[in-house]
Write a structure and sequence with these properties.
A six-stranded parallel sheet has the order 4-3-8-7-5-6, with helices on both faces. A five-stranded mixed sheet has the order 9-10-12-14-15. The protein has 21 helices and 20 strands. Helix content is 49%, strand content 19%.
């Protein structure tokens, strides 16, 4: 199922109905049973945004929590906050269900699948409340057990944290449970799951989020929880103002984050739609950006996906498909040099593709992100997650590629389109390349066809490379066919002038 997802202040939220959400979660359970890879489903509220916006937790925990959200298989919310802010930012999202309805439907579906459930919290009262809740609303669902573990994230207790993780993972794996419920309002457990995910042999992990048990107002369960907490009522009344302090603080903190984002996002959307999309000259013709550019060498393959001027809900699915089609290659480069605007769906696409560990051999990197777009990602609270994936220039990307492939082999792309062949090069045409073999192969395929030479991804051309290009041009002239050059960089133009080859500067 192709699930639309937006990103709100570093928090992904999916467009789903109740039936679609339950069906997706149950499908993750079946997939996890077959391949033993834990699927992760995240229940989210605006509290998570507040807690991990560097106020309550430090930057390391904040990044870890956000990264886990984008690496989750499904992010679900029924919080009206996401509806309000998404409408203000141009991607209207509306909750299709309440958390109570979804939890009841999910428990029913898990019971039908004969799934066993283990509850992992840090507070015994919360786990008891959930056990009581499950036993009342669904008698047939098997509860394998409960656990209460405090997850250390700082201090000297970190010294033995890995040993405690190993013991807990060994216990959970030996029980062969189907579903692990965790969090119950304790965000540190999500960080713990991020730490141990690769070792956990549980088909499905569900993070239920803040106060999920108390929001399910089943009469019997809620009365039990209320009776259980009667002895705390007097103390709670005395702390009324302390309880009021949290939502007021959340309001001001969210306002601090949202007001600049709404203003800048709205202005950017208007500016790009009014000027950039109509007046901005692309560095490549449209026919060359409609398909991925596949470069091959004897050792490596890389695919370049040229991103549009505006990445929004109108084209996100198309570009997601193009990125996924490239994941069989060693390196996937997202060319963002033309990108000037992303809506919430576009932000989610870029961040999720960069952060998700794909079950392929691919490594995804970004190229040439405009400062304006970087600032937009920063206001969306995600730039710190993806900044290490982006390279400033084409030379930086080539250096990263050559670090894995030290040979001087040419990365070339060659395909035929109607009555012309399109030839492209990535990186440098260095002196150590075997141009005689390349020339023999190309001339056979260029018979009676026009040649389009795309140099948008070529960084440098040596003297041997210039001789090679001149031979290609001479062949085309002799057979009376066109030889067209696209996208010469300023550096290449200067090098050609220094080599007294101004005739090659005639580009389309």
């Amino acid at each position: 199922m192709d699930i639309r997802t937006i990103s709100v202040l570093g928090t992904p939220v999916s467009y789903l109905t109740k039936s679609e959400a339950v069906a997706s979660i149950l499908s993750f359970l079946e997939q996890g049973r077959s391949n033993q890879q834990p699927a992760f489903v995240d229940f989210l509220t605006h509290d998570a945004v507040v807690d991990f916006s560097r106020w309550r937790f430090d930057e390391i925990l904040s990044e870890s929590r956000k990264r886990l959200g984008y690496q989750s298989d499904l992010s679900i919310s029924s919080d009206p906050f996401f509806s309000w802010i998404s409408a203000a930012l141009g991607n209207a999202w509306h909750p299709q269900f309440s958390e109570r309805e979804l939890i009841l439907a999910l428990l029913e579906g898990l019971a039908e699948k004969n799934a066993s459930v283990f509850l992992l919290g840090d507070n015994n009262d919360k786990c008891k409340a959930w056990v009581k809740f499950i036993s009342v609303v669904n008698h047939s669902l098997a509860i394998s057990g409960t656990g209460n573990v405090v997850i250390p994230t700082q201090g000297e207790s970190l010294e033995t944290s890995l040993e405690r993780d190993d013991l807990l993972i060994e216990e959970l794996n030996s029980m062969k449970i189907d579903v692990l419920l965790l969090d119950f309002g304790e965000e540190h457990q999500r960080v713990w799951f991020d730490r141990v995910r690769s070792h956990l042999k549980v088909p499905l992990v569900v993070s239920v989020g803040h106060n999920a048990a108390l929001e399910v107002r089943d009469t019997k369960v809620y009365s039990w929880i209320s009776d259980h907490r009667n002895h705390q009522q007097e103390e709670s009344q005395k702390r009324f103002y302390e309880r009021l302090k949290r939502p007021l603080a959340a309001f001001f903190k969210l306002s601090y984050l949202l007001v600049p984002l709404v203003i800048y996002q709205t202005f950017s959307r208007w500016f790009v739609k009014s000027f950039c999309e109509t007046r901005m000259r692309p560095f490549l013709p449209g026919k060359m950006t409609k398909r991925n550019i596949l470069f091959l060498s004897p050792k490596k393959s890389l695919s370049i996906v040229v991103m549009p001027v505006s990445l929004d809900q109108s084209n996100c699915r198309r570009f997601k498909q193009r990125i996924e089609e490239s994941l069989d290659q060693d390196i996937v480069i997202l060319d963002c040099r033309s990108l000037r605007y992303m809506d919430l769906e576009g932000v989610n696409l870029i961040v999720k593709q960069l952060l998700t560990p794909h079950n392929h051999k691919s490594r995804i990197v970004g190229l040439g992100l405009h400062p304006h777009v970087r600032f937009l990602l920063d206001l969306n609270q995600v730039w710190n997650l993806v900044q290490d994936f982006f390279h400033h220039s084409l030379e930086d990307v080539e250096h990263s590629v050559r670090a894995e492939d030290e040979s001087a082999a040419v990365y070339d792309s060659f395909y035929q389109e109607k009555e012309e062949v399109v030839l492209s090069f990535f990186g440098g045409l260095h002196s150590g390349c075997d141009y005689e073999v390349l020339l023999t192969n190309y001339l056979q395929m260029m018979q009676e066809k026009d040649c389009v030479l795309n140099l948008a991804y070529c960084t440098v051309v040596s003297n041997a490379g210039l001789a090679f290009l001149l031979k290609l041009r001479s062949f085309q002239i002799n057979q009376g066919k066109a030889f067209v050059i696209y996208a010469l960089s300023r550096k290449l133009k200067r090098d050609l002038r220094l080599a007294d080859l101004d005739s090659l500067l005639k580009e389309e």
